[in-house]
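Morning F.,

Quick status update on the modeling queue. The single chain you submitted on Monday has been processed. Sequence for confirmation:
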Amino acid sequence: MAELKTMTDEQVAEYVRNKDQEAYLEIVLRYQDKLLRYANYLARDEMKAADIVQDSFIKAFINLNGFNTKMKFSSWIYRIVHNEAVNHLTKHKKEFPIMEEVDFASAENLEANIITKEIQENVKKCLDQLPILYSEPLSLFFLEEKSYEEISDILRLPIGTVGTRINRAKILMKKICQTIR
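C-alpha coordinates below.
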Protein backbone atom coordinates (compact mmCIF):
# COMPACT_ATOMS: atom_id res chain seq x y z
CA MET A 1 0.00 0.00 0.00
CA ALA A 2 2.99 2.33 0.43
CA GLU A 3 3.26 2.47 -3.36
CA LEU A 4 -0.15 4.20 -3.48
CA LYS A 5 1.37 7.33 -1.97
CA THR A 6 3.58 7.81 -5.04
CA MET A 7 0.82 7.16 -7.59
CA THR A 8 -1.15 9.89 -9.32
CA ASP A 9 -4.87 10.09 -8.61
CA GLU A 10 -5.58 8.57 -12.00
CA GLN A 11 -3.23 5.66 -11.28
CA VAL A 12 -4.88 5.05 -7.91
CA ALA A 13 -8.30 5.01 -9.61
CA GLU A 14 -7.00 2.43 -12.08
CA TYR A 15 -5.50 0.38 -9.23
CA VAL A 16 -8.81 0.44 -7.34
CA ARG A 17 -10.69 -0.67 -10.46
CA ASN A 18 -8.36 -3.50 -11.41
CA LYS A 19 -6.58 -4.73 -8.29
CA ASP A 20 -7.79 -3.65 -4.85
CA GLN A 21 -11.01 -1.83 -3.99
CA GLU A 22 -9.69 -1.21 -0.47
CA ALA A 23 -7.19 1.22 -2.02
CA TYR A 24 -10.11 3.63 -2.51
CA LEU A 25 -9.30 4.82 1.01
CA GLU A 26 -6.27 6.59 -0.50
CA ILE A 27 -8.58 8.67 -2.69
CA VAL A 28 -10.77 9.49 0.29
CA LEU A 29 -7.76 10.57 2.34
CA ARG A 30 -6.43 12.75 -0.49
CA TYR A 31 -9.70 14.54 -1.16
CA GLN A 32 -11.79 14.51 2.01
CA ASP A 33 -10.69 17.86 3.45
CA LYS A 34 -10.67 19.66 0.10
CA LEU A 35 -14.13 18.39 -0.86
CA LEU A 36 -15.55 19.16 2.59
CA ARG A 37 -14.31 22.74 2.29
CA TYR A 38 -15.83 23.05 -1.18
CA ALA A 39 -19.15 21.43 -0.21
CA ASN A 40 -19.34 23.56 2.94
CA TYR A 41 -18.89 26.65 0.83
CA LEU A 42 -21.75 25.57 -1.44
CA ALA A 43 -24.10 24.29 1.27
CA ARG A 44 -23.08 26.81 3.92
CA ASP A 45 -23.65 24.14 6.56
CA GLU A 46 -20.99 21.72 7.84
CA MET A 47 -23.40 18.83 8.47
CA LYS A 48 -24.95 19.11 5.02
CA ALA A 49 -21.49 19.40 3.48
CA ALA A 50 -20.41 16.19 5.22
CA ASP A 51 -23.48 14.40 3.84
CA ILE A 52 -22.81 15.76 0.35
CA VAL A 53 -19.18 14.62 0.42
CA GLN A 54 -20.06 11.20 1.80
CA ASP A 55 -22.70 10.70 -0.91
CA SER A 56 -20.20 11.93 -3.50
CA PHE A 57 -17.52 9.45 -2.43
CA ILE A 58 -20.08 6.65 -2.66
CA LYS A 59 -21.19 7.76 -6.13
CA ALA A 60 -17.59 8.14 -7.27
CA PHE A 61 -16.77 4.64 -6.05
CA ILE A 62 -19.84 3.15 -7.74
CA ASN A 63 -19.05 4.97 -11.00
CA LEU A 64 -15.28 4.57 -10.92
CA ASN A 65 -15.39 2.23 -13.92
CA GLY A 66 -16.87 5.10 -15.92
CA PHE A 67 -13.96 7.42 -15.08
CA ASN A 68 -11.60 8.01 -18.01
CA THR A 69 -8.08 7.79 -16.54
CA LYS A 70 -6.80 10.03 -19.35
CA MET A 71 -8.79 12.87 -17.74
CA LYS A 72 -8.03 14.67 -14.47
CA PHE A 73 -9.47 12.80 -11.50
CA SER A 74 -9.78 15.95 -9.39
CA SER A 75 -12.07 17.62 -11.94
CA TRP A 76 -14.21 14.47 -12.09
CA ILE A 77 -14.69 14.16 -8.34
CA TYR A 78 -15.26 17.92 -7.86
CA ARG A 79 -17.96 17.68 -10.54
CA ILE A 80 -19.64 14.89 -8.58
CA VAL A 81 -19.59 17.03 -5.42
CA HIS A 82 -20.93 19.99 -7.40
CA ASN A 83 -23.84 17.91 -8.72
CA GLU A 84 -24.58 16.42 -5.30
CA ALA A 85 -24.56 19.89 -3.72
CA VAL A 86 -26.90 21.29 -6.36
CA ASN A 87 -29.26 18.31 -5.91
CA HIS A 88 -29.12 18.63 -2.14
CA LEU A 89 -29.72 22.38 -2.16
CA THR A 90 -32.61 22.01 -4.58
CA LYS A 91 -34.22 19.46 -2.25
CA HIS A 92 -33.74 21.58 0.88
CA LYS A 93 -34.33 25.12 -0.40
CA LYS A 94 -36.40 26.26 2.57
CA GLU A 95 -33.89 25.25 5.26
CA PHE A 96 -31.56 27.88 6.66
CA PRO A 97 -27.97 27.16 7.70
CA ILE A 98 -27.16 27.27 11.42
CA MET A 99 -24.63 29.91 12.40
CA GLU A 100 -21.19 28.58 13.40
CA GLU A 101 -19.97 29.18 16.93
CA VAL A 102 -16.62 30.79 17.64
CA ASP A 103 -14.01 28.35 18.97
CA PHE A 104 -12.43 29.87 22.08
CA ALA A 105 -10.50 26.70 22.99
CA SER A 106 -7.11 28.33 22.47
CA ALA A 107 -6.62 31.07 25.03
CA GLU A 108 -3.00 31.68 23.92
CA ASN A 109 -3.80 33.74 20.83
CA LEU A 110 -7.33 34.83 21.68
CA GLU A 111 -6.98 38.25 20.08
CA ALA A 112 -5.46 36.83 16.89
CA ASN A 113 -8.19 34.16 16.77
CA ILE A 114 -10.91 36.79 17.14
CA ILE A 115 -9.40 38.96 14.40
CA THR A 116 -9.00 35.97 12.07
CA LYS A 117 -12.56 34.84 12.79
CA GLU A 118 -13.86 38.36 12.12
CA ILE A 119 -12.03 38.53 8.77
CA GLN A 120 -13.37 35.09 7.83
CA GLU A 121 -16.91 36.14 8.75
CA ASN A 122 -16.63 39.32 6.67
CA VAL A 123 -15.33 37.41 3.65
CA LYS A 124 -18.09 34.83 4.11
CA LYS A 125 -20.71 37.60 4.28
CA CYS A 126 -19.36 39.05 1.05
CA LEU A 127 -19.27 35.65 -0.67
CA ASP A 128 -22.78 34.83 0.56
CA GLN A 129 -24.10 37.90 -1.22
CA LEU A 130 -22.63 36.91 -4.57
CA PRO A 131 -24.90 34.94 -6.87
CA ILE A 132 -23.73 31.31 -7.13
CA LEU A 133 -23.09 32.00 -10.80
CA TYR A 134 -20.07 34.05 -9.68
CA SER A 135 -19.29 32.69 -6.22
CA GLU A 136 -18.74 29.12 -7.33
CA PRO A 137 -15.96 29.75 -9.89
CA LEU A 138 -14.41 32.31 -7.53
CA SER A 139 -14.29 29.81 -4.65
CA LEU A 140 -12.88 27.10 -6.91
CA PHE A 141 -10.16 29.44 -8.13
CA PHE A 142 -9.11 31.07 -4.85
CA LEU A 143 -10.14 28.60 -2.14
CA GLU A 144 -9.58 25.33 -3.98
CA GLU A 145 -6.72 26.64 -6.15
CA LYS A 146 -8.16 25.15 -9.34
CA SER A 147 -6.99 26.32 -12.76
CA TYR A 148 -9.40 27.85 -15.26
CA GLU A 149 -9.26 24.58 -17.22
CA GLU A 150 -10.19 22.52 -14.16
CA ILE A 151 -13.01 24.91 -13.29
CA SER A 152 -14.19 24.63 -16.87
CA ASP A 153 -14.31 20.83 -16.50
CA ILE A 154 -16.04 20.95 -13.11
CA LEU A 155 -18.71 23.49 -14.06
CA ARG A 156 -19.00 22.41 -17.71
CA LEU A 157 -18.34 25.93 -18.97
CA PRO A 158 -16.03 27.29 -21.67
CA ILE A 159 -12.72 28.58 -20.26
CA GLY A 160 -13.53 32.11 -21.46
CA THR A 161 -16.77 32.06 -19.49
CA VAL A 162 -14.90 30.92 -16.39
CA GLY A 163 -12.47 33.84 -16.74
CA THR A 164 -15.29 36.32 -17.29
CA ARG A 165 -17.22 35.07 -14.26
CA ILE A 166 -14.16 35.18 -12.02
CA ASN A 167 -13.35 38.75 -13.11
CA ARG A 168 -16.95 39.86 -12.60
CA ALA A 169 -17.01 38.09 -9.23
CA LYS A 170 -13.91 40.00 -8.11
CA ILE A 171 -15.53 43.32 -9.04
CA LEU A 172 -18.80 42.41 -7.31
CA MET A 173 -16.95 41.09 -4.26
CA LYS A 174 -15.03 44.34 -3.92
CA LYS A 175 -18.25 46.39 -4.10
CA ILE A 176 -20.07 44.15 -1.63
CA CYS A 177 -17.22 44.14 0.87
CA GLN A 178 -16.99 47.95 0.75
CA THR A 179 -20.67 48.27 1.67
CA ILE A 180 -20.42 45.75 4.54
CA ARG A 181 -17.63 47.59 6.32
